[in-house]
Amino acid sequence: QKEPGGVLACAKHFVADGGTANGVDQGDAPLQPGELAIHLRPYRQAVAAGVRTVMVSHSSIASRKNNANGELIRLILKGHFGFSGVVVSEWPSAKELPGGSVTRLAAAMNAGI
């Protein structure tokens, strides 16, 4: 909801930070079939409630960095959930992607950030 002089909420860290192996910060979430839906639920609810920004997690799912995962960002968050706000990433996350600066930036942008 828009309110004059209000605050813009950010839902973070999309998605599965709580599912990383051994609870390792910025780790990999080796999710079993059906487990992703559990981790997505709060974000679907946040989008339905009107959140306008989402920050992508430092983590990975099945060894694929979330901030370069177009399936998560474009297809699920923006497509299935209908999120039309701003998707952001912490700069250190982008530095963890393979390649040089331009390649890393392109991977994140192409994923939907």
Automatic annotation (TrEMBL):
UniProt keyword ATP-binding, yes or no: no
Keyword Cell membrane part of the UniProt annotation: no
Any one Pfam family match given in the protein's UniProt record, by short name: Glyco_hydro_3
Keywords associated with the record: Glycosidase, Hydrolase, Signal
Domain Glycoside hydrolase family 3 N-terminal: 6-113
EC number(s) from the headed UniProt entry: 3.2.1.21
Entry-linked InterPro entries: Cellulose_Degrad_GH3, GH, Glyco_hydro_3_N, Glyco_hydro_3_N_sf
Listed GO biological process terms: glucan catabolic process
A GO molecular function held by the record: beta-glucosidase activity
Recorded catalytic activity of this chain's protein: Hydrolysis of terminal, non-reducing beta-D-glucosyl residues with release of beta-D-glucose
Family from the record: Belongs to the glycosyl hydrolase 3 family.
The protein's name: beta-glucosidase
Lineage: Eukaryota, Haptista, Haptophyta, Prymnesiophyceae, Coccolithales
